[in-house]
C-alpha cells in the first residue's frame, strides 16, 4: 500500500496566523509527547511513521508550500509538487502518474489518499492500512473510511451505507449514497439510519485511476502530466470520480477524529491557554491567547474567547463566532507578513509605497544554524542587510566572506548572493525598488555545496 497525503489550500479560517503562504496545517499550536510545540502536519507525519507507513507515504502539495514543508519535516520528505493549484482530482491524478511512471508502483497496488491534517489517534492509521483488505474482499472501485458520529454535525458530509450486515473479515459495507452538510435535524435522522462522517479518506487500486486517465485521454506519464497540468479541469475527486463510481465500500472507524479547521475546534486541543507573550486572568474560562507579536497581550474577565495576533492582523472573537472569519475576510487580500521557509522564517516589519512608485520593505530574517539561503539575484530591488546576531558565511558575486553581528552588507540589484548560518542568524533586511515581491527572486542554486561549486 502507498499513501498520498493531500496538502493544499491557503486557509483563512485560522486568520491571522494562517494566510496564503502558511496554511492551518503548519501552525505550531499543538504539543508532541515530549512537550514540544508541533504543527498538524508534523503530528500526522509522526503518527504515520509510528504506524509503519512512513516509507510508503508521499505528500502532494503546491510549490508555495514546499519550503515550509521541508522546514517542518526535513529535506528527505517525499513530495509530489503540483505545478499550480487546481483541485483534488488533478492533484491525485498527478500523484498517480508519479507513482506509476516514476516510482514504478504496480497497477494492482492499493493507493490510499487522506488529508494531511486530521486530528486522530494512531489507531486511525492502522484502520487506513485495512483499506487494502477492504478492496480485495469487496472488489469495490473505491474503499472509504467512515467515522462513527458523536453528535449531529452540520459541518461534515455523511456516508450512508446499505442496510445489510457488515461483510468480510474487515466488516465493510457497501455505500448507498452521500449527503453533504445536512441541517442538524437531517443529521439526526441520518445517524439513526447508520450514517457515518465522511473524513475524506479513500483508497483504490492504481489501475483504476490510470485506466480512467486513459479513458479521459490524459497523460499517464508524470513528466507529460506535469506539462499539461494547467489544462486539467479544476474539479474535486468527489465530483470527478466518487460520484461516478459503480461500487464503493466503506469501513467504519469508531475512534476519535476531529477537523481542527476553526479556532473554536483547534483551541479545544491546545494544551496551554497562552502561546506567546501575554496573560489570561484566572477568571477567564475557556479563553485562549495565541500571540506571535513581540508585544504583550492581556485578557481580563472574558470567557469563551479566542485572541490571535500575528504580523497579518489581530483577531478577537467569541469562539462560537470564530468560524465566520472566512466570510468576513472574503475579498480582502493583503501580502503575507510572516512566512516559514526551509531555512527559517521572516517577518515583515514595515512596508511603504511612495508617490513616485518607489517602495521600501523592511524584514526581520531568521536563518537556522546549518541552513542557507539560495544563491539568487533580484532584478527590481536593492537590499541592505544589517546582521544583528549570529555568525555565518556570505557569498556575494562569487566572493566568500565571514559575517557576524554588526556587519552591514549592500546588495545591488543583479548581484548574486547567498548566506550560510554557522549559528542562528538574525538579519534586518531593507529592500528598495519599484516592485517588492517574492517573485523577484531568481534562484541559481539551492544547496550550499552546489553554490560553492559555482564560486570556485
UniProtKB/TrEMBL annotation:
SUPFAM superfamilies given in the database record: Nucleotide-diphospho-sugar transferases, RmlC-like cupins
Cross-referenced InterPro entries: Man6P_isomerase-2_C (IPR001538), Mannose-6P_isomerase_type2 (IPR051161), NTP_transferase_dom (IPR005835), Nucleotide-diphossugar_trans (IPR029044), RmlC-like_jellyroll (IPR014710), RmlC_Cupin_sf (IPR011051)
Pfam families: MannoseP_isomer (PF01050), NTP_transferase (PF00483)
CDD domains: cupin_PMI_typeII_C (cd02213)
Residue ranges constituting the Mannose-6-phosphate isomerase type II C-terminal domain according to the UniProt record: 341-444
Nucleotidyl transferase domain boundaries: 4-271
Protein name: Sugar phosphate nucleotidyltransferase
Organism: Paenibacillus xanthanilyticus
Amino acid at each position: 500500500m502507498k499513501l498520498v497525503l493531500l496538502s493544499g489550500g491557503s486557509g483563512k479560517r485560522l486568520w491571522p496566523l494562517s494566510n496564503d503562504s502558511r496554511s492551518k496545517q503548519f501552525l505550531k499550536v499543538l504539543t508532541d509527547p515530549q512537550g514540544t510545540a508541533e504543527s498538524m502536519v508534523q503530528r500526522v507525519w509522526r503518527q504515520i511513521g509510528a504506524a509503519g507507513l512512513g516509507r510508503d507515504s508521499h505528500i502532494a502539495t503546491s510549490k508555495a508550500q514546499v519550503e515550509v514543508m521541508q522546514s517542518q519535516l526535513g529535506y528527505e520528505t517525499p513530495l509530489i509538487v503540483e505545478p499550480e493549484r487546481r483541485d483534488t482530482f488533478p492533484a491525485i491524478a498527478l500523484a498517480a502518474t508519479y507513482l506509476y511512471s516514476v516510482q514504478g508502483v504496480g497497477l494492482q497496488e492499493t493507493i490510499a489518499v487522506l488529508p494531511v491534517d486530521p486530528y486522530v489517534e494512531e489507531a486511525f492509521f492502522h484502520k487506513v492500512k485495512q483499506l487494502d483488505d477492504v478492496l480485495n474482499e469487496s472488489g469495490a472501485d473505491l474503499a472509504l473510511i467512515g467515522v462513527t458520529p458523536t453528535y449531529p454535525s452540520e459541518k461534515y458530509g455523511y456516508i450512508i451505507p446499505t442496510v445489510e450486515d457488515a461483510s468480510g473479515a474487515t466488516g465493510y459495507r457497501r455505500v448507498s449514497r452521500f449527503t453533504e452538510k445536512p441541517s442538524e435535524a437531517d443529521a439526526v435522522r441520518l445517524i439513526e439510519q447508520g450514517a457515518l462522517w465522511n473524513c475524506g479518506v479513500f483508497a483504490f487500486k492504481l489501475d483504476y485511476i490510470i485506466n480512467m486517465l486513459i479513458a479521459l485521454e490524459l497523460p499517464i506519464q508524470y513528466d507529460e502530466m506535469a506539462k499539461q497540468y494547467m489544462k486539467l479541469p479544476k474539479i474535486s475527486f468527489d465530483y470527478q470520480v466518487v460520484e461516478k463510481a459503480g461500487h464503493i465500500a466503506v469501513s467504519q472507524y469508531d475512534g476519535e477524529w476531529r477537523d481542527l479547521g476553526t479556532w473554536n475546534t483547534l483551541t479545544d486541543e491546545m494544551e496551554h491557554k497562552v502561546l506567546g507573550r501575554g496573560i489570561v486572568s484566572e477568571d477567564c474560562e475557556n479563553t485562549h491567547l495565541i500571540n506571535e507579536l513581540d508585544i504583550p497581550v492581556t485578557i481580563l474577565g472574558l470567557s469563551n474567547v479566542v485572541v490571535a495576533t500575528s504580523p497579518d492582523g489581530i483577531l478577537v472573537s467569541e469562539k462560537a463566532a470564530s468560524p465566520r472569519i472566512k466570510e468576513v475576510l472574503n475579498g480582502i487580500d493583503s501580502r503575507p507578513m510572516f512566512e516559514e521557509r526551509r531555512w527559517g522564517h521572516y517577518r515583515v516589519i514595515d512596508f511603504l509605497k511612495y508617490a513616485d512608485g518607489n517602495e521600501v520593505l523592511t524584514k526581520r530574517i531568521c536563518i537556522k544554524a546549518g541552513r542557507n539561503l539560495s544563491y539568487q539575484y533580484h532584478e527590481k530591488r536593492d537590499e541592505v542587510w544589517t546582521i544583528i546576531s549570529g555568525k555565518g558565511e556570505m557569498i556575494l558575486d562569487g566572493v566568500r566572506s565571514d559575517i557576524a553581528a554588526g556587519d552591514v552588507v549592500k546588495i545591488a540589484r543583479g548581484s548574486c548572493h547567498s548566506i550560510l548560518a554557522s549559528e542562528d542568524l538574525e538579519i534586518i533586511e531593507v529592500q528598495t525598488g519599484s516592485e517588492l515581491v517574492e517573485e523577484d527572486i531568481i534562484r541559481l542554486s539551492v544547496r550550499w555545496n552546489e553554490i560553492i561549486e559555482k564560486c570556485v
